[in-house]
Amino acid sequence: MLELKGVKLKYGYVEALKGIDMRVEEHQITALLGANGAGKSTTLRAVSCLNRIEKGEIVFLDEQVHRLLPSEIVRRGIVHCPEGRKLFPFLTVQENLLAGAYTQKDRDQVRNFQERVFTLFPILKDRRRQMAGTLSGGEQQMLAIGRALMAAPKILMLDEPSLGLAPKVVEQIFDTLVTLREEGTTIFLVEQNANAALHIADYAYILEIGKVVLEGEGKALLKNENVKKKYLGG
Questions:
Q1: Count of Cβ atoms closer than 10 Å to residue 218 Cβ
Q2: In what order do the strands lie in the sheet with 186-190?
């Protein structure tokens, strides 16, 4: 569904991605793991065309997309839920959700998307008239995911959705990701919580300093001794 072929990306003279190859298969959760500075967020920003790649190509549904504008990327169905949530704090929950649906023209469809979000995250329905900036961290992350879903993603890219959240909330978020996969949403997940990510991932890649150093099925990587030592604390 999504393929990165020999992708290189620089920040000035620093090569952040050093010719990476990846595939994200349809209806699967693909995890991208690694330490801080490995290039995980940069990879998502490259797919979203927020950062331009220097070499290689990014192909989505058999179309080269790495030269498109970010707005065109969203219209193709690639939706990026960024690290840090990036909500509009002085807009209500409902207004944030509607902002996520700016590419959607069918009002009935927008209402259906909103009801889907409220089904996944019932607390957001209770908070729909509340300012986003007053929500708890977990509620803000739910809203960030909900806002992304309002754009009707064919592939949902999530950057560190567990960051700063209590374990119980993390479990709820990851259960929701599994539900989304079961409903047919393809997910590309960047995550530092390798243990949680590998438990739900169909496939995973591990980045180190801009290079893919290991890949495989999520369950297989959970048993890999090198992964246990470096990323799982075992």
A1: 20
A2: 78-81, 155-159, 186-190, 29-33, 203-208, 211-217
Tell me the whole-structure pTM to 2 decimals: 0.92
- Contacts of 231 by beta carbon, 8 Å cutoff, 6+ apart: 33, 194, 195, 206
Single-letter amino acid, residue 173? I
Task: Name, in order, each residue with C-beta under 8 angstroms of 71's C-beta and a sequence gap of 6 or more.
Answer: none
pLDDT tens per residue across span 82-141: 887 889 999 999 999 999 998 888 888 899 999 999 999 999 999 999 999 999 999 999
> Which of 161, 158, 159, 124 is CA-nearest to residue 143?
124
Q: Are 211 and 181 in contact (CB under 8 A)?
A: no
Q: Return the pLDDT at 36.
A: 86
Bridge partner residues of 81 (DSSP)? 158
Instruction: Identify the bridge partners of residue 203 per DSSP, sorted by sequence position.
Output: 30, 217
Residues 232 and 234: their CA atoms lie apart, in Å, by 6
Contacts (Cβ under 8 Å, ≥6 apart) of 124: 93, 97, 117, 118, 139, 142, 143, 146
Q: Please state, as a whole number, how many other Cβ atoms lie within 10 Å of the Cβ of residue 142.
A: 26
**Backbone phi, then psi, for 104, in 5-degree steps?**
-95, 130
Label the pairing between strands 186-190 and 29-33: parallel
Q: Which residue matches tokens 């992304």? A: 148
As a 3-state breakdown, the chain gives helix, strand, coil percent values, each rounded to 5, of 40, 25, 35
Is the pLDDT reported for residue 2 higher than 60?
A: yes
